[in-house]
Task: structure prediction
Amino acid sequence: MNDEVASIADQDTPTAAPVDATSGGRPTSPDAALPWVVRFAPLVPERGVVLDVAAGGGRHTRWLAAQGWRVVAVDRDTSALLDLVDPPGVHDGRTTDAAADVEVVEADLEEGPWPFPDRRFDGIMVTNYLHRPLLPTLVASVAPGGVLIYQTYARGHERYGRPTNPDWLLRPGELLEAVRGRLRVVAYEDLTTDQPARVQRIAAVAEE
Ligand SMILES: C[S@@+](CC[C@H](N)C(=O)[O-])C[C@H]1O[C@@H](n2cnc3c(N)ncnc32)[C@H](O)[C@@H]1O
Result:
């Protein structure tokens, strides 16, 4: 990783107020679930297990769990997810809150092995995160009947702010390419929002 973007955590730091890109760019809370996620999450089978990749502060983990899905949240830094797991002294990584069913997994998705080699998920959510070599693994990890919901910055965003590293910016059509022949595309957008931000996003399902 180069100096310009010493940490992908740069992607945590919006350069402008976060927006609801689906509904015309109105500012939203940084803790709010992205409209793209909210819109397509119903494609996840009821009581299915959703993987929130690079979950960060867990805005999607929390929202999904509140809707009744079981969630596995993975990030290399799970410090902002600690309230979701067991009290001090108990470290099995599963919440004790009966209202939510969340498993928090701390793993480096770029330096370490894929932490879920034997698992498939009914939903995979990825937002504001890109590690290009992981794309085939993510697609292959969608269970039959499940859905991949992905939104992140795309090439062209560099004129508006970070991230500017091309490694973190999707190429035109890249999410479509990633799922081609593997998942059925339900929705895809590649657009500049009012933020402004250049984003690409997809919802694509694995046929049963
Ligand atoms: C911009 S945040 C996005 C968080 C969340 N997906 C969201 O949209 O609110 C990027 C996240 O990627 C995580 N991350 C960066 N590099 C990672 C790595 N190598 N392995 C796992 N997580 C990583 C960071 O810790 C951070 O939580």
About this structure: The beta strands are 19-20, 26-27, 49-53, 70-75, 102-106, 121-127, 142-153, 184-192, 198-205. The chain has one domain: 34-205. The radius of gyration is 16 Å.
